[in-house]
Amino acid sequence: MVQRTEAPGVGVHALDATYLSGGESAPADATTRLGALVNRLPGGGFAPVAVSEELSDGQVLNVGGGLQVLHTPGHTPGHIALLHQPTGVLITGDSIWNMRSRITWPIAAMCTSHVQNKRTAHVLGEINYDVAAFTHGPQISTQARESVRGFLQRASN
Description:
Layout: H1 2-5, E1 10-13, H2 14-22, H3 33-40, E2 51-55, E3 60-61, E4 67-71, E5 80-84, E6 89-91, E7 97-99, E8 102-104, H4 114-120, H5 123-126, E9 131-133, H6 144-156
Parallel strand pairs: 1-2, 6-9
Antiparallel strand pairs: 3-4, 4-5, 5-6, 7-8
């Protein structure tokens, strides 16, 4: 993306900046068998990415009328969701997925801490939005907040 756009770098939460600029993935959740195995494998890196800005929770980015950064660690230490307040669109990132139109957690081994991911995802039920857009799965345009809140409530019991 940086090469195609000739951007000076990317904005990323401060807790993930070292991973991107070093060309390495955050560690996998070692409490899972697959995560422990992934952590033992050599390599698995990527080309280093220039970080032009370190983002923080609550920050509003000057993009498209304003994107609010919501720190939701667990998938990675610096994982974020983004809220476009002018249009009421929430971009969940990998906090939760909507695979086959069913809200679910991401794969535990693909998180740095699946337990922390579940704990911090509650932020997505506490803010106001009309549309939930997912990294994995289709967006929800009708009663999005209620759908996400319902999932979070059921999943925490």
